[in-house]
Amino acid sequence: MRNDPLLQPYRLRHLVLKNRLMSTAHEPAYSEDGMPTDRYRLYHREKARGGIALTMTAGSAVVSPDSPEAFGNLHAYKDEIVPWLRRLADDCHEEGCAVMIQITHLGRRTGWNKADWLPVLSASPVREAAHRAFPKQAEDWDISRIVADYAAAAQRMQAAGLDGIEFEAYGHFMDSFWSPATNRREDDWGGSLDNRLRFTWAVIDAVRAATGPDFIVGIRMVADEDWDKGLSRAEGVEIAQRIAASGKFDFLNLIRGHIDSDAALTGVIPIQGMASAPHLDFAGEVRAATGVPMFHAARIPDVATARHAIASGKLDMVGMTRAHIADPHIGAKVAAGLEDRIRPCVGATYCLDRIYEGGGALCIHNAATGREAQMPHVIARAPVPRRVVVVGAGPAGLEAARVAGERGHSVTVLEAAAQAGGQVGLLVQNPRRREMIGIIDWRLAELERLGLELRFNSYAEAEDVLALAPDMVVIATGGLPQPPEADGVELAISSWDVISGAVKPQGRVLVYDDGGAHAGISAAEMLARAGAEVELVTPERMLSPDIGGMNVVPYLKSLHETGSRITPALRLAAVRREGNGLVAVLGSDYAPGAVQERRVDQVVVEHGTAPLDELYFALKPGSRNLGAVDYTALIGEGEVLPVTNPAGSYGLYRIGDAVQARNIHAGIYEALRFGIRW
Ligand SMILES: Cc1cc2nc3c(=O)[nH]c(=O)nc-3n(C[C@H](O)[C@H](O)[C@H](O)COP(=O)(O)O)c2cc1C
Ligand code: SF4
User: Fold this and answer.
1) Burial class (CB in 10 A: 0-12, 13-18, 19+), 521
2) Distance CA 305, CA 339 (A)
3) How far is CA 622 from CA 78, 460, 463, 652, in A?
4) Ligand nearest to the backbone CA of 25
5) Bridge partners of 567?
6) Confidence bin at 358 (pLDDT 50/70/90)
7) Distances (CA, A) of 589 to 240, 417, 567, 586
């Protein structure tokens, strides 16, 4: 371990970073009114405790009020941020972790109709696809006030005791001057590279004048927009070289790609099913061409790749950002030789998609992340060991078993199928989503380590459960697909029939999705890839409203590549047989009576699941709590399962889709938050 390249300290000027692991800037949207309050602090402290050397806080902390937050960004333009950041920095420093922050002016990457309703601006008035504002062209007085705002923000960060800052220069205001895609100016700020870099020099000079030579200042910059109308690799590398040669920056954090649409963003931040470490070699090339300390992150999810990035000299610090959202204790586990116990980041990008939908970043399978005040990452043993039976080995059931095992209880898991996984076993039939099996495999490995008993092919009846004399029964039996209400819907097949491969695609297929999450669109993708002529119909105004912009990208790629049709705002009214085929009758919520028909070979429906709850209701009368959960206690303190039937011999708790159709995170969170209390 001592020779592990990842664990070697790194000296960045006067600052010694204890190893090579860092978390790059990412706004988890935990801020309150733009301030990094306790939730924010505890989130970073957990990573510091988990052994990371450097945490780049915020993501795009905004330096000016006319850069209103796009996703909970911190307000670096307010003095009141200083004490909050000081607390965060003190906590992390105590654990030996350095703290920096990314500051920026978002430019056109935000909206005008929020915060102080100030106009959005950019180098030139070119609209950004993702945020849809038509920016105004920055004027001379805008440029000088924003330069001053950068300097004032940098001073605040220094006053808070942070070790340094980085500028964000990809898709934001600073690099809007660099890129031909966003700079059409013919004045002193456009045209030649000298002109396009003028703003960058003005900012760094003002920041250096404000903070002095000892404060660390780096830049997270694009060196190739990978875009026909954007910044070329040749010009990007030249910018990197000029930045390095200026001696004004202490490190370079490399980005390749552009981010003005969701589709483009997945090139910079690839999601599951996409290439790992796609820009690592380029980062190595730029490091060689510039000689500056090089940081970089882009889907380096595992320790082996991270180690290679350092050992091969491509990077000085390796960003494992989502990997630390999934497991904030990576450094400590590597140092302790427990690499195989790291909870894997499966690339689901639920974390990032949530912030664009206005939520806080949450990991699909680590419910403690972002909830550090209430949910522990390391589970304490219970005072008294008990006997727990968990029914169902999907993600929720396995999490319940894992947590109970960590608590020191004796656990038996009963699973009707021949293997664990539940709906995860189904969704990974889409080859693009195979990594999701990590959610199951990691838990199975943990259960084995904890010595818990798993019984497969065990369809549990109430007496099977009672024969195990449990103190606690957790019902995690999941659900089964249910059809939407429509005449003749029994002629349709379910999304599960398609995803599992049980029904083969034929000819023209209409996929009707009012589930709004992955199952419907995944079935459509698999059908289209298998050669069917697909039309995906949804009653919503937008496609798949329950999955975020990043996750929709590969689905749309498949649907567009295969020439599939997408139809919003129509509701399935009926299915009828006609000749050898079927007719789907589609109505409109908006224009009652307006009806369309489609002649197809198959109709596939996705309408969520109905709980498999027979066992729960069979066990309910004999339970101490009669199945009841005290929600006030569950979200606060006290006895979660009220004793409403003292004659009962066990507690009964039902979780996940066995309660109602939800997602993986919901089931895992339910298992964790109950499990740690019992
Ligand atoms: C929730 C979330 C928010 C992010 N916000 C920012 C941001 O504001 N600025 C930034 O430069 N990168 C941001 N990123 C990108 C990360 O810094 C990183 O580049 C990306 O996650 C790829 O690295 P990874 O594969 O190690 O996660 C964000 C990432 C996530 C997951
Ligand atoms: S949600 Fe997915 S991508 Fe994000 S940290 Fe968790 S496992 Fe990784």
Assistant:
1) buried
2) 13
3) 58, 16, 11, 9
4) 1
5) 537
6) confident
7) 54, 40, 14, 10
pLDDT tens-place string over residues 458-493: 999 999 999 999 999 999 999 999 999 999 999 999
Which 3 state secondary structure label does DSSP give 341?
helix
User: What number of other Cβ atoms are within 10 A of residue 277's Cβ?
Assistant: 21
Helices (H), 451-517: 462-466, 495-499
How many angstroms separate the alpha carbon of residue 166 from the centre of ligand 1? 14
Tell me, what DSSP letter sits at residue 374? T
Ligand nearest to the CA of 436: 2
Q: Is 478 helix (H, G, I), strand (E, B) or coil?
A: coil
Distance CA 572, CA 596 (A): 10
The pTM score is 0.98
- The CB of 26 under 6 Å from ligand 1? The reply is yes
pLDDT above 70 for 534: yes
Amino acid of residue 72: G
DSSP 27-57: --S--BTTB--HHHHHHHHHHHHTT-SEEEE
Q: What are 608-626's pLDDT values in tens digits?
A: 999 999 999 999 999 999 9
Return the sign of the alpha-carbon dihedral for residues 462, 465, 470, 474: negative
Contact criterion met (CB below 8 Å) for 335 and 23: no
Atom of ligand 2 at shortest range from CA of 325 = 5
363 Cβ closer than 6 Å to some ligand 2 atom:
yes
Q: Using DSSP bridges, classify how beta strands 602-606 and 508-513 pair: parallel, antiparallel or unpaired.
A: parallel
DSSP string, 616-650: HHHHGGGBSSTT---HHHHHSSS-SS--S-TT--B
Which pLDDT does position 70 carry in this prediction?
82
pLDDT confidence of residue 204: 98
Q: What is the pLDDT of residue 1?
A: 61
Q: In degrees, to the nearest 5, what angle opens at C-alpha 538 toward C-alphas 537 and 541?
A: 130
